[in-house]
UniProtKB/TrEMBL annotation:
The chain crosses the membrane at residues 27-51, 57-80, 101-122, 142-164, 176-194, 206-226. This is Ferric reductase. The lineage of its organism: Bacteria, Bacillati, Actinomycetota, Actinomycetes, Pseudonocardiales. It is a multi-pass membrane protein. Coiled coil: none annotated.
Amino acid sequence: MTTQLPAPAARTARPPAVRPKAVRPKAVARAGLCAVLVANVAVVTALFLQAGPGVNALIAIGRLTGLYAALLMAFQLLLVARLPWLDRRLGMDRLTSWHRWTGFSLLWLLLTHFVFILFGYAQVSELSPVDELVLVTTTVEGVLRAVVALVLIAVVGGASARFARRRMAYETWHFIHLYTYLAVVLAFSHQVAVGTTFTASPSATAYWWGLWGVALGSVVLGRLVLPLWRNLRHRLRVSAVVPESDDVVSIHITGRDLDKLPARAGQFFLWRFLVKGRWWQANPFSLSAMPDGRTLRLTAKALGEGSASLRALAPGTRVFAEGPYGAFTALHRTRPDALLVAGGVGITPVRALLEELGGHLVVVYRVSRPQDAVLLDELRDLARARGAVLHVVTGPSNAPTPYGPPLGPGAIGSAVPDVRDRDVFVCGPPGMTGAVLRTMRELGVPKRQVHAERFSLAS
């Protein structure tokens, strides 16, 4: 039986709303990345023209596309470096999506570079393209490395295609993806060895060394140095393991100087629990309580072998955490009031946000069965304390109601008549999140007010 969304409740006393930022952090970060990319495209084009186009048009096009591919490869590294400033403003979901599409663009640029250079030099030497390829790979330094790099990137691109990704275990896909770093090193060494533009002038050489230094340095800083430094500083350990239901468990974590850890409600970490058989597995789980400077808490559902084994963790277990990550935070508020919509275990970051957000809040918690509503007692207590309205919606997604689908425009519009004047935070399984986003579009909620996190990493 479906629990329908009731009529809007009267507003009660609530925490004061925080004044939203005049300039959206997401817009600043997006504009900054675009400006950096456009400026570097202009520099690369100028360096290409300074060096001269080459002996024929085919070689000229090949060289230019190769330079753009090198620039895009460096930009790719910046997108996955997990730099805190970018991640807090754009979120790993968005950065990963951009990385994916930039990767396919990079593959096409590299293929274009390969084909035009090969046919251009074959035209000059009057050899067949196959004979020219054999000649340059066996006699010209760096060309064989470039061919290997192209093959590696093509393999990674194929593994990242949706049809292949769905049929591949995450660990397998991730292992294949690591070969991208080898391809980057091989491509850079090729550019150093035979890149005409690289050695055309001292300024060109300085530019390319600087570009690759910043890109690779960002990866080392964001994915190695910063996580190591934070874990050495905070010394995280499991303090308690609390079962919430038959298949949901909360892990409480303590450490040193947690008030200096820049974590916010709505964010997640990649958690490694340093016990035999698990230390190498990193699982992404959101904080299920607002960080208070003394403890951190995550709540996980048994969706796989890794998350199912959390119940067996012992207090005192050392923890290595990468993060915090995510832009699903109050940093992106645009309105004083908010609607929070959660599905299943996606309630964890929403429950944390309920603690932090000010203004009038409405929470819609969607589950298939009443017994699936984890942390429900906490949600009710928090809602009462903060003057928020809590709706728990259960039953099949296609169950008929007087308002249409449970999370459709009729139901949401009836329960939250002023939804267009609110921020909307949505977190849950991809199907539910997509349905809520469509509802927001149909209700006319401005896109800038909708903040979504697809809770699918842990699966």
